[in-house]
Amino acid sequence: CVPAIMQKIKYFAKKKMEKIIQDDPVEAENISVDNNKISALIYTNFIMKIFKLVIIILNISYFLGFFLYIFCDLTMEIFYDGHSDADSTFMTNFGIKDNSNFHNTVVLTYFSFTSLSTVGFGDYHPRSNSERLLCAFILLFGVAIFSYIMGNFIEMLSDWKTLEADLDDGDNLSKFFGLLRRFNDNVPINQKLKE
């Protein structure tokens, strides 16, 4: 998905540059050195990757929340059908069956996200032993998922830092060539070399 979006951005930037060159070639010479907007494309790529990680986290939380809902519903039907212990389950204690679908989606995604991130605020928590066992596996799964995601995020930050250093060097080089152009009475260097 990210490469396809980046290709579209590159295509539109290329078309825009071709139009500028076609309309006014003199103005095209005065445009900054980054004609293809490479730095903007790279920044957009980083933003898209971060957005992708956020979407992955939310999707995992969403589907894990509904897996928890299905699991709790099945355990209530199998183990607590008509028993007085049914009040000590996640579904009955927090009124999941009585709420709207939207409210349940928010609550279960929130519970899954806080469990996956191992924060667990305690406002929603498993009540029965089977729910506690499932949540223990969710916590182990959450550590693995968040370790993977944080590893990707740290790698992106490292790449960003390296890119910034490279762009600073590129800016210095651009300033140097601009200074040379001024010394050549604003004649481009490639034209001066041809003479």
Give structural notes.
This protein has 195 residues and is mostly helical. It is built from seven helices and no strands. The mean pLDDT is 77.
Brief descriptors of the model:
195 residues; mainly alpha; 0% strand
How many helices in DSSP terms?
7
The amount of helix comes to over 70%
Q: Radius of gyration in whole Å, from Cα?
A: 28 Å
Could you say which structural class the secondary elements and strand pairing correspond to?
mainly alpha
Short description:
This protein is an all-alpha fold and 195 residues long.
Secondary-structure topology with pairs:
Layout: H1 2-23, H2 25-30, H3 38-79, H4 90-93, H5 101-116, H6 129-183, H7 189-194
